[in-house]
Specification:
The protein has about 130 residues and is α+β, with helices and mostly antiparallel strands. The protein is built from three helices and eight strands; from the N terminus they run E-E-E-E-E-H-H-H-E-E-E. The chain has one domain: Hypothetical Cytosolic Protein, Chain: A (2-Layer Sandwich). The two termini are about 35 Å apart. The structure holds zinc ion.
């Protein structure tokens, strides 16, 4: 049975997404942190790992409102944005690599497990098997 992936909502675009496709920001003891695993205690909210949503969140006072803060030091706000963007970009690269892997599979390139446990990659073309 497939494991149910918890869903959370991005505060910017209001889309429900898998929790692992979102970043969580948490305010605790006067500090704002990027919660990579989504388990930090404190007041938190979620945003897509999408530069468009992150940019929108950093515009005006939106971030402050989400964190229920009167003000956020500009230097601190910039630093946090850098961190969040870096995490979003890293995730996008991972997604792109996964997509490439799936495209290779769709093209008929596959891993064949031999009876003795050795794995070989093969490309299946026109019904002929060619070892790589
Ligand atoms: Zn979003």
């Amino acid at each position: 049975m497939a494991k149910r992936v918890p869903q959370r909502m991005c505060v910017v675009c209001r889309k429900m997404r898998n929790k692992r496709d979102l970043l969580r920001l948490v305010r605790r003891d006067g500090e704002i942190r990027l919660d990579a695993i989504g388990k930090m205690p404190g007041r938190g909210f979620y945003v897509c790992k999408d530069p468009a949503c992150i940019e929108a969140l950093w515009k005006g006072r939106r971030l402050e409102q989400q964190l229920e803060l009167k003000a956020l030091e500009p230097a601190c706000k910039d630093q946090l944005k850098e961190q969040v963007m870096a995490e979003a970009l890293r995730w996008q690269q991972e997604q792109a690599a996964e997509l490439q892997r799936q495209q290779r599979l769709a093209k008929g390139e596959t891993t064949v497990l031999l009876p003795d446990g050795r794995a070989v990659r093969r490309v299946i073309k026109d019904g002929n098997h060619k070892s790589l």
